[in-house]
Amino acid sequence: MIKTALQHVKKHPGLIPQFFFTTLGLTGAFLYLIRLARGPHVTFWDKKNNPEPWNKLDPTYQYKFVAINTDYKNLKKEGPDF
Fold first, then answer.
1. What UniProt keywords are attached to this protein's entry (predicted)?
2. pLDDT tens per residue across span 24-52
3. Whole-angstrom Cα distance, residue 25 to residue 70?
């Protein structure tokens, strides 16, 4: 497959930017998925010691990136009591 792509590039040099930006986009998407998987530690990947990580979050914890009109200090707690 790579050999065929190189043959096409030799015949049509206008394909070089297309291959470059396609590779760049795929690499960026892959790195972004890795970042999301490792990302902000709202939930943890520890299934043995923390099987339900959403129960350990405080209702006033701001886990959104941007909250324009939300005051997290005055939120009513909705969930199980600890």
1. Membrane, Transmembrane, Transmembrane helix
2. 999 999 999 988 887 665 555 666 776 77
3. 35
DSSP 21-70: HHHHHHHHHHHHHHHHHHSSTTS-S-TTT-S-GGGGS-TT---SS--SS-
16, 9 Cβ separation under 8 angstroms: yes
Task: Give Dmax (Cα) for the chain.
Answer: 69
pLDDT tens for residues 9-29? 899 989 889 989 999 999 999
Distance CA 30, CA 39 (A): 14
**On the CB side of 78, how many CA atoms lie within 13 Å of its CA?**
4
